[in-house]
Structure formats: structure tokens, C-alpha cells
Amino acid sequence: MTEKVYYEQQNDWNEEDYYYLHRVLHRVFFYHDKHTEEIKNMDVSMMTDNTKALIYCIIKYYHYDFLFEKYDNLKPLENTIPLSKTLVLDSNPLPENNIYKLMNIMY
Known about the structure:
mainly alpha
């Protein structure tokens, strides 16, 4: 079985690595109807705080809060707090105020 990128420990990752992780997670959650089995089998306890914050941002950005209810394993993410250290996905972040800025993620 191949280890999913969202379970990696992210030691020595750079912004390109985090951007890739975000794209993978974005595909899974944006197209949640196509990825129900993958989402249902995710173990958030094995994820870093950065990964959890990215999932939280994607869900909140698209107003997919119903996913917290639909998948019991995602319920703990409802209480995600902003990251203490800024996570940089892109050095030219979006100018709008959004959930990513609130969670201390440059995107």
C-alpha cells in the first residue's frame, strides 16, 4: 500500500511541497462525491497540524461544513485552530481576506 502524501511528516518541506499537498487535498475534498471512500478512510490522528489546517480551510472555503457531519472521522477538524507558524503555499498569496489568512496560511 502506498503511503498517502497527507500522512507524511513534512520534515524539511518547502512551499512547493505544501502547495502539492494542498492540490491533492483540494481534489479530494472539492470532488468529495467521487472520493467518499478515501475521505471515509482518512485517519486525521495521523496527520500533521498543517495538513489538518489545510483540510479545514478547503472545507470552510467552499462552505462544505456538511462534510464534518457526513464523515465522523472529520468531526475533530471542526475545532481546528490557526497555525502558530505561517504555512506558505505560495509567496504571492491571494489578496482577499479568507479562511486561509484566518488560519495563518499564505495562499
